[in-house]
Amino acid sequence: MKNIFNPNEISLVADYIRQGEVFAIPTETVYGLAADIRQDNAIKQIFSLKNRPNNHPLIIHISDISQLSDYAIDIPDYAYRLAKNFWPGPLTIVLRKSKLVSNIVTGGQDSVGIRMPNHELTLSLIKLVGSPLAAPSANQYGKISPTNAKHVITEFQGHVKVLDGGSCNIGLESTIIDATDAHTYSILRPGMISINAIYEVLDHTHITYLKKGTKAVSGSHKYHYAPSKPTFLFECPSQLKKISDLHQNSVYILSINDYQHLGFNGCRMPFDANKYAKVLYQKLRMADESLFEAIAIEKPPKIIEWEGILDRLMKSSAKSMEIFIQ
Ligand code: TXA
Ligand code: MG
């Protein structure tokens, strides 16, 4: 069965989706496992393909800001301000849902996450389908998100069709902001649009930032984005040595600084946060598929540009680190 479709087959892909098929699609962040939000059966299939609990809401992808008022109600002015500033782009805005969004999509919540992806091919696809596409990241629940078409094929062992839009430019899932309240907002998931960038846009609007979101966010669970091998974070050579000793020196390193000269195997990661995000999931998959027993990742700088990356690394390594610290 043919399962990778090229950009020039976009009309065919739109037909499939309109008829109720699930299709993996590219975005600038990661690939999504998409379905037409009007097709309840296709939406249910997304949950079963991913092994995702059905109370974990899906975000919906629109192709134009004007659609916001079709799918959300009680939209605060500041949400429009954010949309105008960051769309198309890696920001998901959670708002109260309209009747056009089913409870199946939102996992029973009365809010919906909406974003307009910065990917020409996918924006054209949404227009052709004539309806927003619900799409979580196209990975098995709790695993690493795919950033190219081949990753999707591997993740679902060829059982999912994918529109090939090349490698994702951002490489990390969108920042999610809860804008359901007219006076306060919170960040539910950090991403490459930092809280500082959001502050700047909302400056002088008298909208208050609440530090901790309370909504159910699957990526906010303790373990997520995880390779199948034991995965650790380290900050210095002595910690790395400890991890290496635990695993018979069979450790694959992802490091910003040079640890190769100390005799460790692995690859160097970019020093720049945007470049790092773009390659992170691809390198994590490579490390997971290597012959080494474990993965050790050098902790990136604790500054705002790295917030989203650090969040994913903490979750990828949470399980192994718990054991390591004991
Ligand atoms: O960059 C992205 O956001 C990618 C691409 C494909 O757009 N999508 C993505 O979807 O990462 P997903 O489902 O893997 O992560 C979206 C997160 C989930 O953790 C979900 O729980 C949360 O957003 N979410 C969705 N709707 C929500 C809502 N109404 N309230 C609170 N959290 C919500
Ligand atoms: Mg995900």
Could you please describe the fold and organization of this structure?
The protein is globular. The chain starts with a strand and ends with a helix. The chain folds into 2 domains: 4-210, DHBP synthase (Alpha-Beta Complex), CATH 3.90.870; 231-324, Threonylcarbamoyl-AMP synthase, C-terminal domain (Rossmann fold). The protein is of the alpha/beta class. Helix content is 32%, strand content 19%. A hairpin with a 6-residue loop joins strand 2 and strand 3. Strands 1, 2, 3, 4, 5, 6, 7, 8, 9, 10, 11 and 12 form a 12-stranded mixed beta sheet that branches. It binds threonylcarbamoyladenylate and magnesium ion (MG). Threonylcarbamoyladenylate (TXA) binds next to strand 6 and strand 7.
Global outline: globular
Please tell me how large the radius of gyration is: 20 Å
- In CATH, what is the class of the largest domain? Alpha Beta
Instruction: Spell the H/E element sequence.
Output: EHEEHEHEHEEHEHEEEHEEHEEHEH
Under CATH, the topology of the largest domain can be stated as DHBP synthase
CATH architecture label name of the largest domain: Alpha-Beta Complex
Low-pLDDT stretches are none
The number of domains is 2
Notable features of this structure?
326 residues; alpha/beta; DHBP synthase; Rossmann fold; 2 domains; four-stranded parallel sheet; 10 helices; 16 strands; binds threonylcarbamoyladenylate; binds magnesium ion
List the helices and strands and how they pair.
Elements: E1 4-5, H1 10-18, E2 23-25, E3 32-36, H2 40-50, E4 59-61, H3 68-71, E5 72-73, H4 77-86, E6 91-97, E7 111-115, H5 120-129, E8 133-134, H6 149-155, E9 161-163, E10 175-178, E11 184-189, H7 195-202, E12 208-210, E13 231-234, H8 237-246, E14 251-255, E15 265-268, H9 273-289, E16 294-298, H10 307-325
Parallel strand pairs: 1-9, 2-9, 4-7, 6-10, 11-12, 13-16, 14-15, 14-16
Antiparallel strand pairs: 2-3, 3-8, 4-8, 5-6, 6-7, 10-11
Helix pairs in contact: 1-5
This protein binds threonylcarbamoyladenylate and magnesium ion.
